[in-house]
Amino acid sequence: MISPTDRDIPFADAVWLNPPAEAVADEAGLLVTTREGSDFWRTTSYGFVRDDGHALLTDFPPGTAVEVTFRADFTELYDQAGAMVRVDAGTWIKAGVEMSDGQPQLGAVVTHGTSDWSLAPVPDWAGHEVTVRVSRSGDAVTVRARRADEAWRTVRLAPLDPDAEARAGLFCCSPQRAGLRVRFTRLAAGPADTALH
């Protein structure tokens, strides 16, 4: 069962990992502009390490969930945004919407020393508000996502050391360019989900 996120987190109360070119808070949320070539990736297939994507993070202890809502308005290859779980530079999860193969894709990258990547096309999510939810329980993080108020889709179940000190929140990157602008409308927290299904 998915638990409600009962606490909005003011964007000003979270901390930037790799501040973006610009982040402007207003009545509509937070508008973030990326730096050129920003990304999170470790080694697999490409042979490089990137750890300069933009992430605005808050505490993510066991037994909690974090939700990130944003508008999926992407036009160029690898434009991406969503939710990140971060332990350190070699241990993290990013999940959200990314432009690949000419259309928006719902996916996740799980990194334990090296990164993996999974994708599924969501062309009808383009230009819509999307929410990504990460829920931490036991030795796992469950990642879910949905367009607007539609039903949740399970994206990934990934391992995370139950004793790890982790942070979670929003992220965005533009590996192929500068100046991607992402409108985030909500960062929220609550209790972890009580069941996987």
TrEMBL record:
Gene3D superfamilies: 2.60.120.200. This is DUF1349 domain-containing protein. Coiled coil: none annotated. InterPro entries: ConA-like_dom_sf, DUF1349, UCP022704.
